[in-house]
């Protein structure tokens, strides 16, 4: 609004100067270079005549006519000029400024929307990246757990196999030992019976054979 009023004042000032609304006392008198020099005596006489005419003019009153009509018509012309300017210049200019302001606001809103969308996309990308990293970490951890579980199962199975093999080996050794001892004692019993029968000239009874075998068994750990 202030810009509009300033424009009106400037236009009015220019228009006033154009139509000649200037006080008559302020109008400069130009002297051509071709004119003859002014005689001071003639100037004095002209001034005296002017004073006389001025006194008569003051008695008759100030002339109201051409200058007042000029001011009125200048004002009316100025109003018409303002109307034409407002219709054909100011209204399109104002409309253009409004459209430009609307366009700027729309561009700002679009830029803000694009910025928010970009920030949202960036946040989603970061979230997806974090989720992917968590999934990768979980897969790696699960693989470690599976590997540990398989290793423990293999170690347990191997330990069971070793324990079973050791147990079977011990059992086989025990059976072989018992078989060897049995064969040894059977052989010893037979040899003792033969030797005794040869020495004593008679066969040993079953009780004597059992007693000799028990004594030999009692002495065997001390020897072994």
Automatic annotation (TrEMBL):
Membrane-protein topology: Single-pass membrane protein
GO cellular component: endomembrane system; plasma membrane; proton-transporting ATP synthase complex
Keyword Translocase included in the entry's annotation: no
Entry's Gene Ontology molecular function annotations: proton-transporting ATP synthase activity, rotational mechanism; proton-transporting ATPase activity, rotational mechanism
CDD domains: ATP-synt_Fo_b
Transmembrane regions listed in the UniProt entry: 70-90
Locations listed in the record: Cell membrane; Endomembrane system
Coiled-coil regions listed: 108-160
Keywords: ATP synthesis, Cell membrane, CF(0), Coiled coil, Hydrogen ion transport, Ion transport, Membrane, Transmembrane, Transmembrane helix, Transport
Function as written in the Swiss-Prot or TrEMBL entry: F(1)F(0) ATP synthase produces ATP from ADP in the presence of a proton or sodium gradient. F-type ATPases consist of two structural domains, F(1) containing the extramembraneous catalytic core and F(0) containing the membrane proton channel, linked together by a central stalk and a peripheral stalk. During catalysis, ATP synthesis in the catalytic domain of F(1) is coupled via a rotary mechanism of the central stalk subunits to proton translocation. Component of the F(0) channel, it forms part of the peripheral stalk, linking F(1) to F(0). The b'-subunit is a diverged and duplicated form of b found in plants and photosynthetic bacteria.
HAMAP family, alphabetized: ATP_synth_b_bprime
Subunit and interaction comment: F-type ATPases have 2 components, F(1) - the catalytic core - and F(0) - the membrane proton channel. F(1) has five subunits: alpha(3), beta(3), gamma(1), delta(1), epsilon(1). F(0) has three main subunits: a(1), b(2) and c(10-14). The alpha and beta chains form an alternating ring which encloses part of the gamma chain. F(1) is attached to F(0) by a central stalk formed by the gamma and epsilon chains, while a peripheral stalk is formed by the delta and b chains. F-type ATPases have 2 components, F(1) - the catalytic core - and F(0) - the membrane proton channel. F(1) has five subunits: alpha(3), beta(3), gamma(1), delta(1), epsilon(1). F(0) has four main subunits: a(1), b(2) and c(10-14). The alpha and beta chains form an alternating ring which encloses part of the gamma chain. F(1) is attached to F(0) by a central stalk formed by the gamma and epsilon chains, while a peripheral stalk is formed by the delta and b chains.
UniProt record similarity statement: Belongs to the ATPase B chain family.
Protein name, entry field: ATP synthase subunit b
Species in which this protein is naturally found: Polystyrenella longa
Taxon lineage: Bacteria, Pseudomonadati, Planctomycetota, Planctomycetia, Planctomycetales
């Amino acid at each position: 609004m202030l810009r509009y009023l300033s424009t009106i004042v400037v236009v009015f000032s220019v228009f006033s100067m154009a139509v000649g609304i200037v006080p008559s006392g302020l109008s400069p008198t130009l002297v051509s270079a071709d004119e003859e020099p002014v005689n001071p005596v003639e100037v004095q006489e002209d001034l005296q005549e002017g004073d006389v005419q001025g006194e008569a003019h003051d008695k008759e009153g100030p002339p109201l006519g051409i200058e007042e009509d000029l001011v009125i018509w200048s004002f009316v012309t100025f109003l018409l000029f303002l109307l034409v300017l407002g219709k054909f210049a100011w209204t399109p200019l104002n409309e253009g400024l409004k459209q430009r302001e609307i366009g700027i606001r729309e561009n700002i809103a679009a830029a803000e929307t694009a910025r928010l969308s970009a920030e949202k996309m960036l946040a989603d990308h970061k979230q997806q990246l974090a989720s992917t990293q968590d999934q990768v970490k979980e897969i790696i951890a699960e693989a470690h757990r599976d590997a540990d579980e398989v290793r423990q199962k293999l170690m347990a199975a191997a330990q069971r196999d070793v324990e079973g093999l050791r147990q079977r080996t011990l059992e086989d050794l025990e059976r072989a030992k018992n078989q060897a001892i049995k064969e040894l004692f059977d052989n010893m019993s037979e040899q003792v019976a033969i030797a005794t029968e040869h020495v004593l000239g008679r066969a040993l009874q079953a009780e004597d054979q059992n007693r000799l075998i028990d004594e030999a068994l009692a002495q065997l750990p001390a020897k072994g």
